[in-house]
Amino acid sequence: MAGILGVGTGIKIDEIVAALVNAEKAPKTLQLDRLEKATTSRFSALGTLKGSLSGLQTAIQGLNKASIFDSRTALSNNTSVLTAKATSSAIAGKYSVQVQQLASSSKVGLQSVDSSSSTKFNSGKLTISTGSSNFEVNVTAANNTLAGVRDAINAQGKSAGVSATIVTDSSGSRLVLSSSKTGEGNDIEVAATEDGVTTGTVALTTQAFKPSSSLQLPSFAGGPTSTFQGGDISISSGDVNLNVTIPDGFTMEDVRDLININGNPQGISAAIQTDASGARLVLSSSNGTDLTASATSSGGSVGSNALTTLNPATGTTSTITGPNSTTGAAGIISKAQSAVLFVDGLKVVSDSNSVTSAIDGVTLNLAGIQSSADIAAGKTVDVTIGVDKATVKTNLQKFVDGYNSLMTSVGQMTAVVPMGEGENPVTGALVGDVTARGLVSGLRSELVKMAGGEGIQALAQLGITTQKDGTLKIDDTKLTTALDSNFEQVSEYLAGDNGLMGRLEANVNNYLKSDGVLDQRTKALQSTLSNIDDQREALDMRIAKVQDRLVAQYTAMDQLVSRLQKTSESLANQLASLPGLVKKD
Questions:
Q1: CATH architecture for the domain at 213-297+304-319
Q2: Which of 139, 183, 240, 247 has the most CB atoms at less than 10 Å from its CB?
Q3: In which residue ranges of the chain is CATH 3.30.70 found?
Q4: What's the pLDDT tens digit per position in 160-174?
């Protein structure tokens, strides 16, 4: 339409039509713009309101759980020795714990072999066990090198928690096996059998290993010929319990021989060790890392020493033999042992450093042992089990923060701010909104409602009060006092369907649930925005028709004027040609 100029009239039809069209369209457009702006503002404000209300709902749900009032704290006054964690079943109280030994896993070095790459084992099978579990490793011509056996052990032992590496020392190279299984009786053992299929440079049986230990008995200045009165010697190692009866008048050599006769078939032996202090019996066992001995007297009189003098000195324990870098012999690097602790004087033995059986509902995580001086002095680590007041206080603070955030948002969105005389005030998007008013009114009504019965009946008793601006404030001192003196009543007042948080959650849920109040309002506003788009489209169609009509009318008028001008000119010419017509100059 741009640039249309009347031929007959010379008027600018496009400008006239545009002015008339704009005059027709402007009022409705302005109306739709105002409606769209107001609706968009309300839509955005309701989204902000929903976000703030969701934050409050999360805080309410955090307090409306019986579990947070049932949770327990577990505090250790020496975390370098142990830490503790309690479940809701733990009984509040104080426990004295003494840690004497940590649980550990087994690590052994097998017999070393020549570190040359040409060193190969005879083929066969290795059976590696840790306590009651075991796995097998087949050694063939394809993997009978030290590295090949290492890789095979790592592949097969992964699920059993056993790994292997190679360590080289002055005696050669050896396999070092490590286990992740802690607890007494879970020492690594290796059995080796050969199948004769492939012959290498080293027998596979050299890699067999069984944990062993030794125990030194007291020394006697009389030497190996010292005599003893009759009695019994009980020796225990692993699953072996050996009892040897010693006749009256037996010498140390006789005792040694009798132990060897009875004990050798069961992996227990005795030897005499002589040094500057005299001679002593040294017991050895291939049944494990623990070896104990106890002598009792039968009351005989022949012999210069009572048999009980063979009892190990106080504090003497069995020792283990480590790998030998000179001879290449296998040995124990660290033995598997259980944790030993005392809880209120009661001995507890655990295969793991995470002890769950000592105190009901409490897990003790052992991190270190107490010094021998502390143990001798009877010093303990205090473990205190209590109710988890800190979590309740934290969740109450979150509730107050969430409520205050909501009130601040609603206040801003419903505010009317004067701009001075003669100026229209600035209003929030939800001024006069029934949803905002109903929400605030419902929440405040629940906050001031008094609970029935005894105990905590109002938030004010927890130190939570309403300020002039409608927000909440916590008096920490008053809250702490309430939790210390009435913890169970606090739980009853806050949690549960009939508790304050339960009622608030039901109220908030009416607004936030699917097809709830806010959902319905949002859908209604979306419908309004969609209707505005439809009205704009209809307006554009109507205005287009108006424009076409006006263009057609003005064009027809212009054409008519053009025809009339031509007719006028024709008549003028005809009149001018009539006889007797006098033209005026």
A1: 2-Layer Sandwich (3.30)
A2: 139
A3: 213-297+304-319
A4: 999 999 999 999 999
